[in-house]
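FW: tagging you since you asked about this chain on Friday. Here's the raw sequence from the shared folder, copied in full. Didn't touch anything.
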Amino acid sequence: MEQHRTRTPQRRQTPQVRPAPPGGLGEVTAGPAYPVSVAVAPAPATGAGPGAGPGSRPRGGVPPVVLALRRFPNPRLTGIGAGLFAALTMFLLACADRVLLGSSEFVYGLLFLPVSALTALWVRPADLVTAPIIVPIAFAVGVIPVAGGTGGFGGQTMAVVTALAVHAGWLYGGTLVAGLIATVRKIRQMRERQRHLLRTAARHPRP
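HL: got it, structure written out here
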């Protein structure tokens, strides 16, 4: 007699999926011969906090005022160069003041303050001590066109001396501005040098 063979039904194995780690590369295997790589990109980090609005400054950023000031020219002049810059600028401003405003000594003194500040800002660090000395000389050179005076060299000299005595407040004010800026720059330079020495000593300790 003929016997029929019976087969036991076999269960099909479902493909196992390996979960990918968060923020990295994961491998999903559908079978033993078909590996599939899936890249998961991390979410971009934003500098602003959750409550920051469209006009708020990101954390650790630079204020817009500082960025605007950095766009200005920042030359480094020697002591002689800074003196020539200040004297020539004040002389040209005095000539323009005489032509346009009829030798207004108030306007001349007012313009002397920003020129003193720029002179102290643009002089190189090695010549910072010359800034408070340069600006009074520049004021005396520039006051010649607006001082007036008649009667030749003697009359012109007396007019310049009189203008310097009458408008000594502007002269002292501009010198004070230049001295303060030069002092602040010198202090910052000394602190940066000290920090540099500390970093050097930390990187190269003595045995």
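FW: The chain has a mean pLDDT of 75.
HL: agreed, and Residues 103 and 146 are 5 Å apart (CA to CA).
FW: great, closing this out.
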